[in-house]
Amino acid sequence: MGMQTDVKQAHLNGSGFLVKSPVRVKGVSFYGSGTAGTLVLFDTSAAAVSASVTYARSGTTVTVTKTAHGLTSGTVIGIHFATGTGGTATDGTYTITRVDANTFTLTDINTGTITGSPAAVYAVGRWLLTYECDTTDVFQNAPLIPGEGVRALTGVYAYASNIAASQIYYG
């Protein structure tokens, strides 16, 4: 019989760190706010960047714009993309190429054209998961994550947009 790991819970109202150490996320639940919302979890030691971040995609190249982003080529980020005209780029973990002080690019696993300057949120580190809720989701218990869960190597930062509260279950 294998070693049993205690399951713990962390709760947060709004965006912020749920855990600042390596963990395995086993499940997620959140409370909606009566407005469609998004919960994104990142494996990072720094807060996510969400203010005035936009993107566009041409082919597989996604161009992200953020004034004075401070990133260098080769930086690994986790990123979540909102829907734009033509679809949505693929949430995930990417290595970026710095174009200039206000722009960087990454290569999406999918292809197509996305315009309209939709929003994005990113963190230096890895993307773990995204949950979307609509206006009828007052309370959402996401199913437990099967197997060993999702591994966060650094810590878990929750970006919450129109989410009243969130919790993770980890071990």
CATH fold description of the largest domain = Jelly Rolls
Q: Mean pLDDT across all residues, rounded?
A: 90
- Tell me about the biggest sheet? 5 strands, antiparallel
- Give the tally of structural domains: 2
- Spatial separation of the terminal alpha carbons: 18 Å
- Total strands: 15
What does the radius of gyration come to? 16 Å
Strand content: over 45%
Number of helices: 0
What CATH architecture of the largest domain would you give?
A: Sandwich
Strand/helix succession: EEEEEEEEEEEEEEE
Specify the overall morphology: globular
Structural class: mainly beta
DSSP helix fraction? under 10%
**CATH class categorisation of the largest domain:** Mainly Beta
Structural description of this entry:
The strands form 4 sheets. Strands 1, 3, 12, 13 and 15 form a 5-stranded antiparallel β-sheet that branches. The chain has 2 domains: 1-44 and 126-171, Jelly Rolls (Sandwich); 49-124, Beta Barrel (Elongation Factor Tu (Ef-tu), domain 3). The chain contains no helices and 15 strands. The chain is mostly beta strands and 171 residues long. It has strands spanning 8-12, 16-19, 23-32, 37-43, 54-65, 76-81, 92-95, 97-100, 103-114, 120-124, 126-133, 139-141, 150-152, 156-161, 163-170. The mean pLDDT is 90.
How is the secondary structure organized here?
Blueprint: E1 8-12, E2 16-19, E3 23-32, E4 37-43, E5 54-65, E6 76-81, E7 92-95, E8 97-100, E9 103-114, E10 120-124, E11 126-133, E12 139-141, E13 150-152, E14 156-161, E15 163-170
Keyword list:
single chain; 171 residues; mainly beta; Jelly Rolls; Elongation Factor Tu (Ef-tu), domain 3; 2 domains; five-stranded antiparallel beta sheet; four-stranded antiparallel beta sheet; 15 strands; 0% helix; globular
